[in-house]
């Protein structure tokens, strides 16, 4: 591979850097390695899934007719975590940005297991039912999106446990 500069790609060698690119955040100088140190990632990615697909670690989902509403709702949950309450409460630390996989939603779960996520999903769904019954549809929808994010965190933890068991 040549060492010519290419503005259409960016070398990235950490998951944190992948997530920063996917979130549209700038990289630190330490996160931009030399040309031959990491896979090339397209500069304009819109999600961690697309970044991983570009790296070859996961295939990018294709648009499937009839599943547009599911995609829309999953993107709302992603946006809530990446731009809303989750980011406001948990992405900042004493020294800069803290990516999702290093936030309490996963740090604590690594200590106590998936039971915490199962509890949070159930609690948020129960709260959504109560809010809907009181006519608070916006609050109910926000709680359901939070449940989706907790379910995603549980999925991530299950991947980590599976990988650890395979080693």
Itemize the secondary structure elements and their pairings:
Blueprint: E1 9-11, H1 15-22, E2 40-42, H2 48-55, H3 68-83, H4 85-90, E3 92-93, E4 96-97, H5 104-112, H6 115-133, H7 137-166
Antiparallel strand pairs: 1-2, 3-4
Helix pairs in contact: 1-2, 3-7, 5-7, 6-7
Notes on the structure:
The chain is mostly helical. The protein has two domains: 9-55, no CATH class; 68-166, no CATH class. The protein is built from seven helices and four strands. The chain has helices at residues 15-22, 48-55, 68-83, 85-90, 104-112, 115-133, 137-166, and strands at residues 9-11, 40-42, 92-93, 96-97. Strand 3 and strand 4 form a beta hairpin. Helix 1 (15-22) crosses helix 2, helix 5 (104-112) crosses helix 7 and helix 6 (115-133) packs antiparallel against helix 7 (137-166). It is globular.
Low-confidence stretches: 1-13, 33-45
Order of helices and strands: EHEHHHEEHHH
Neighbour order of strands in the largest sheet: 1-2
Oligomerization status of the protein chains:
single chain
Indicate the mean pLDDT: 74
**Main beta-sheet strand count, sense and barrel state:** 2 strands, antiparallel
Strand content: 5-15%
> How many domains make up the coordinates?
2
**What gap, in angstroms, lies between the N and C termini?**
32 Å
SS elements, strand count? 4
Our count of helices gives 7
Which range best describes the helical content: under 10%, 10-25%, 25-40%, 40-55%, 55-70% or over 70%? 55-70%
- Radius of gyration (CA) equals 18 Å
Q: Classify the secondary structure makeup into a structural class.
A: mainly alpha
Q: What does the overall shape look like?
A: globular
